[in-house]
Amino acid sequence: MSSRLLTSLKKVPVEVYPVVASVVGGCVLSGWILVHNFNSSHEFVINKKKGWPYMEEEKSRNEYIKRLFHKENINSGDEIADRRKEESDMSATQTQTTIQGPSTTIDAELDKIKQIFSEELTAGIPEELPEMPQWDESIPHAPKRPITFTEETFKLAIRNALRYFPSKFHAQLAIEFADELRKYGHIYMYRLRPTSYEVRAYPIDVYPARCRQAAAIMLMIHNNLDKKVAQYPHELVTYGGNGSVFSNWAQYRLMLKYLSEMTEEQTLVMYSGHPMGLYPSHPGAPRVVVTNGMVIPNYSSKADYETMYATGVSIYGQMTAGSYCYIGPQGIVHGTTITVMNAGRKYLGVEDLRGKVFITSGLGGMSGAQGKAGVICNSVTVVAEVNEAALRKRYDQGWIMEIVSGLDQLVERLKKARQNKEVVSIAYHGNIVDIWERLAVEDELLVELGSDQTSLHNPYHGGYYPVGLSFEESNQMMVENPDLFKEKVQESLRRQIEAINTLSSRGMKFWDYGNSFLLEASRAKANVMDEKGKFKYPSYVQDIMGDIFSLGFGPFRWVCTSGDITDLDTTDAIAADIIESIMKKEEEKASSETKKREVTKCKLQHRDNHQWIKAAKSHQMVVGSKARILYSNAPGRRAIAAAFNEAVRDGRVKAPIVIRETSNVYDGSHNTADMAVQNFVGDSFRGATWVALHNGGGTGWGESINGGFGLVLDGTPDAGRRADLMLGWDVLNGVSRRAWARNENAEDAITAAMEEDEQLVVTLPHHASDDVLEAAYRGGK
Amino acid sequence: MSSRLLTSLKKVPVEVYPVVASVVGGCVLSGWILVHNFNSSHEFVINKKKGWPYMEEEKSRNEYIKRLFHKENINSGDEIADRRKEESDMSATQTQTTIQGPSTTIDAELDKIKQIFSEELTAGIPEELPEMPQWDESIPHAPKRPITFTEETFKLAIRNALRYFPSKFHAQLAIEFADELRKYGHIYMYRLRPTSYEVRAYPIDVYPARCRQAAAIMLMIHNNLDKKVAQYPHELVTYGGNGSVFSNWAQYRLMLKYLSEMTEEQTLVMYSGHPMGLYPSHPGAPRVVVTNGMVIPNYSSKADYETMYATGVSIYGQMTAGSYCYIGPQGIVHGTTITVMNAGRKYLGVEDLRGKVFITSGLGGMSGAQGKAGVICNSVTVVAEVNEAALRKRYDQGWIMEIVSGLDQLVERLKKARQNKEVVSIAYHGNIVDIWERLAVEDELLVELGSDQTSLHNPYHGGYYPVGLSFEESNQMMVENPDLFKEKVQESLRRQIEAINTLSSRGMKFWDYGNSFLLEASRAKANVMDEKGKFKYPSYVQDIMGDIFSLGFGPFRWVCTSGDITDLDTTDAIAADIIESIMKKEEEKASSETKKREVTKCKLQHRDNHQWIKAAKSHQMVVGSKARILYSNAPGRRAIAAAFNEAVRDGRVKAPIVIRETSNVYDGSHNTADMAVQNFVGDSFRGATWVALHNGGGTGWGESINGGFGLVLDGTPDAGRRADLMLGWDVLNGVSRRAWARNENAEDAITAAMEEDEQLVVTLPHHASDDVLEAAYRGGK
User: Where's the Urocanase N-terminal domain (chains A, B) (predicted)?
Assistant: First the structure.
């Protein structure tokens, strides 16, 4: 299919577009049709009356309906497990089954949701207080916040919460909110959590809105709070423990109301979860501007955060929680995939990891992505995990292919897998240090790449389990004898480094995965520093990702707002075709030396992402909204966005991208945040549908500033223009900053970009020699 | 004249506009004509050939020419003093003399400047290194930066500086920059300081530019670096000790080059002084986006700043330095005037301070404005100053009217002035504590209002001089015996509070002027806390200004880019007329109770500013660019901007406004910065010509986040639309935030604004009673 699509894209679409156009003709009012997978073997029916397409096979459709009207209080843990199983099956079988057209039942159900939404989402804070929903034990809930209130802050928290409600409810709510404060350390306003519908991303035309952009944002918010997506959905936390969409359910209701009534002449202003209101603007302006956790820098301690969060005046939006564009674990799988591919390229000089062994540890949370990423890279991947429950979960989810216990068995399995060049992910139930020490004494070097993803941000309270103790023994000791446990952790880290050093001296390549492994090892006095006082091993952020970011490559995500999985297939195919076409086109037209050099480097990155996007569907990583991630550079993003916009016409692709402050800048500017702020503001007037600026991403409150945006591609020429202008800026700003910081890849990338656009004029650095600097430094001595 | 102008504005201009229009007709190409004071007694000539108007009386014109070609290395301190005297005379006599048309000499001189600019400003970093300019002793220079370099940071600073230059110059420049680092703690690149022209705000059409907005920004930058305006012009510091426009002269040259070549399809991106480059955008986008000192919050210590500044990767832009809109001491005179007027209103219940006595201290730096402000308020003002040089300077400048030494003499003079209701400013040469203690024992209460503006941010190193020691004794002791000096300061503060307490108990009203007076007094264990553990006296920021800001009133500045003082007169008159008209109109149409309440409060603020603008000219506060400041609210700013834009047509009014994070919010959000960031981004897509976001204003690095903008009013309908949309947002965002924080004035103001614009929909707070909160808090006990 890809070659046909490519042809059509090149020619001005003849095969695809007329069909889409006719669809559009039938549903201009709702306007939310996405292009379909015309070349697949699926049948499909466009529901012209409702204006959105529906196709899923029978089983999943039943499941779908069930979810739509799912009442949480009749939920049980088993039921959820069943549903998860069902959906996993569904996603596996979806493309192998002939899909039937939508039944009228589905229409009716969505009509009901539409009806509910048209009443509830437009109502804002309800005029009468709803019943208190039952506490749902089957859903994970946030732990109690670590805050001690003074009388003043306690009352302030309640006073601030009450300002959302008329005074007739104050007496009742004050007591209730005080109760929440005492029990949970925060006022979530559970009473306002909606129960007449399940919170999840519905097809976009179900949302009541006066402009399509607003409906798209509603969908994204619902996805971030979907119980299948969010970490603590009832506490409005999407991920990362405290990455919030809102501070409380009143803000949720108020924001949806504003979105339901906003026009293209207004902009909704979000102050750290609080919807300040709608302000007159214009159609070219963002529909929503989000700031999260913006604080005066010297008042950005963790204690400040706890107080500001508890009193409802700020939230920690992480990166994609408070900007409404979280797409589940797929992002981390992709990031890990790219890291491993580039590690192979950089450290082993190979483009294919088949037959190479990658060993690491950790299968909980984000580290759980390692097995899947290793498989997408074609490697033999071994991940050690001490916690059997976590290990089983990943296995059950299909994120790991085999489980091995015992070192002899592991060594046997490794040898066989290497020999046969198997593509396999193996979970080892036990301690990673045992693996390293065993491999260090094997005659044959059985591992090419090594890393570690234990949670060393938190080494003494369960983030790291020392070798020699069982999981249970560790859990006991860390509570009962924390000093001894700390000793054990440090001893374990020293042994781990020792074995890694041995393997490294024999040719293994090891890198730090940004989990403070090297830092904690150095604190444990492990032999991890070189003679210059630097770490012996590189950090992936700096050594691997930095080079990639410098080329302008970074995360590019999109969501198919129809909620239709085949739309996602189509966009995957379009993206793959565009990447192929770009690799060819760029090579052909590269004239200057700089451009040629840049094209060569970029081609490898494009290739990795091509490999990713081709395999992505089969790895079943979609949870919640139908979303995809890949990395691309400025020309790539612009071309993909243009192709989506063109191919879609009256359909829609939303491409939220989050750009982070990153390392690998050599000019001492690593703690500056000008780039993030410039991106945010520059996107805002170049056409973003919404923009967001956050204090702290994965690195924690006060530890970074990052900006992001969402862009609605609705098939109009205007959307195409916006995408082109904004995506060019967004990427090239980051590249410029890296170029100015003397990053060679970035200098090539920005020089190449200037060759193509004479309106782009960027200051480039001259490089000074060490000799000159030495002379200047010694001059005065 | 004002009534005539008002009539014309109301009717659609018939008297004024045709004249302007005809002017416009003659100079479309240069396009930088401002409206003139047609109703004054001045003659005027429009120079059609050059496209800009010129009129000054003969003497000042000579002075003007002299300045244009002034070579600094032939400068002497005396000459500067003479020039200042001359200009002071000029500004005093200007409006009382019939002004002649411009001579051809002037045209020729400006032609020369234009020629020089067309070569130098467009060149950027020169291809050959210019001669090192001579060190100019007559100009104040920044003290050496307080930084200790490591070898790494020392070399990094040089490496970063060298990146602006091709490698053939590196050997020479590295030695030179190392020398600057050792001598000054910073690399200013003195060699690149321009010497073929004097840096100052020239008439706008002298600047080489492809778009008018860029030329306007050039003018503003030049004004900020004018030696008559800037604190340390050669170190690129405009005010506040380290409020920088750039980090070095290479950045200056590069930015002017970019501005000279930019089109309306590009945006210049400024990263903390560094011009990153021109990026494609569109005519509706800002021409320049400035971020200064944006850092990751947890890396915002003073030491971080020193290192980042020294290595050239960040600057402290203060508020108006790094955003190119400093207008000299006028701003602080206005702020002090408004404060004193509102103190009289709030604390004394009077609208006229005639016959009331205001006593304070400090005549250096910003505190120097107190005498002039007191006079504009019609009060009897006494300012104590221990430093005779500072006191003499203010007297010579005409900022103080009389000098008194000796307490008996002061008391005599005070009694007389009170009795005669004199409008007079008196400098007392001596210690403020002596005054307070003497007045405390006088039978008659001789003072109604009291404050203090000693530099208590820096109490032990010259910011405060203790009573009982002479100025010289203090200077000696703080160096030779700092511990004893500290004791003396604290004892002095205790005595000062004691006397103030006595006077307050008898009816004097005292307030803290934001100079940490109360804080340091409490640290000195002075009797300054009430029974609840709060300060006994209010802070002006919270108690006085907060109420004003809540109404939406805040600084509104404009610059007449023709450089013509009569243009400023005209705009003063237009502003005064608009204020009158608004007071009337608002009162007439106030229908709801809220609106009536809001109008009543606003009227008082409008009246203060009317009094200010009527008197402003006579107080001779214009230094550098022809600029004015006043406070207004959203309707006021929009109306004034519209009137300027309309009245000007093809002339130009530039209205930079800086909005600060302020106090007086009751919901615990005082340390959040969402509002500042929202203002910055919201202005950017609503039509600002440039926007800026800063870390730290007057409060210091890391202590605030504040945003600002500049807007070019060029008389086009587009400019009018932008002004209306942006000024509405900019003010009402701040008001919304204060309203949400339960500030009553702000609630009234935003409610009134919503009544007038149905597109504005703002979340308003419900107020909770203390009883409800008490019950909730006790509930669990």
Answer: 199-325
Distance between CA atoms of residues B695 and A340, nearest Å: 38
User: Which residues on B lie below 8 Å from A757 (Cβ)?
Assistant: 280
Best probe of the A interface among B761, B767, B774, by most A CBs < 10 A, is B761
Distance separating alpha carbons of residues A729 and A246, to the nearest angstrom: 29
Cα–Cα distance for residue pair A62/A68, rounded to 1 Å: 10
Q: Which residues of B touch A737 (CB under 8 A)?
A: 271, 276
At A107-157, the pLDDT tens digits run: 788 899 999 999 999 999 999 999 999 999 988 898 888 888 999 899 999
On the 0-12 / 13-18 / 19+ scale of CB atoms within 10 A, A716 is middle
Q: Do the Cβ atoms of A742 and A667 come closer than 8 Å?
A: yes
Signed CA dihedral, B212, B214, B219, B224: sign only: positive
B668 pLDDT tier (thresholds 50, 70, 90): low
Say if residues A374 and A450 touch (Cβ distance below 8 Å).
no
For the domain made up of A118-310, give the CATH fold. Urocanase fold (3.40.1770)
What pLDDT sits at residue B343?
A: 93
Which residues on A lie below 8 Å from B165 (Cβ)? 766
Q: What phi and psi values does residue A535 have, to the nearest 5 degrees?
A: -65, 145
* CA distance, residue B300 to nearest chain A CA (Å): 6
A139 in B contact zone (CB under 8 Å): no
Q: What is the DSSP secondary structure assignment for residue B545, as one 8-state letter?
A: I
Sign of the dihedral through C-alpha B588, B593, B594, B598: positive
- The CA-CA-CA angle for residues B667, A322, A256, to 5°, reads 80
Report how far residue A585's alpha carbon sits from residue A597's, in angstroms, rounded to the nearest whole number: 15
DSSP state of A480: H
CB of A374 closer than 8 Å to CB of A338: no
Distance CA A463, CA A486 (A): 12
Cα B565 from chain centroid? 19
**Cβ of B297 under 8 Å from any chain A Cβ?**
yes
The CA distance from B88 to B63, in Å, is: 11
CATH of domain B336-528: 3.40.50.10730
Query: Residue A404 corresponds to which amino acid?
Result: V
Query: A158 CA to chain B: closest CA distance, Å?
Result: 7
Joined tokens for residue A219: 């969908």
Where exactly are the structural domains of chain A?
Answer: 2-105, 118-310, 336-528
Distance CA A507, CA A445 (A): 8
Three-state secondary structure call for residue B318 = coil
Nearest beta carbon to residue B686 from set A278, A281, A682: A281
For helices A717-740 and A634-648, angle between their N-to-C axes, nearest 10 degrees:
170
What are the tens digits of pLDDT across the range B207-260?
A: 999 988 899 899 999 999 999 888 899 999 998 788 899 999 999 999 999 999
Tokens at B364, concatenated:
């250096």
3-state secondary structure A522-548: HHCCCCCECCCCCECCCEHHHHHHHHH
Q: CA A284 to CA A264: how far, in whole Å?
A: 8
The 8-class DSSP code of residue B515 comes to S
Residues in Cβ contact with A59 at an 8 Å cutoff, skipping those fewer than 6 apart: A86, A89, A90, A93
- Residue listed under structure tokens 């597109």: B759
| Cβ pair A685:B311 closer than 8 A | no
ipTM higher than the 0.95 cut: no
Here the tokens at position A558 are: 């999109």
| Per-residue buried b or exposed e for A526-562, using 16+ beta carbons within 10 Å of the residue's own CB | bebeeeeeebbbbbbbbbbbbbbbbbbbbbbbbbbbb
Prediction pTM value: 0.79
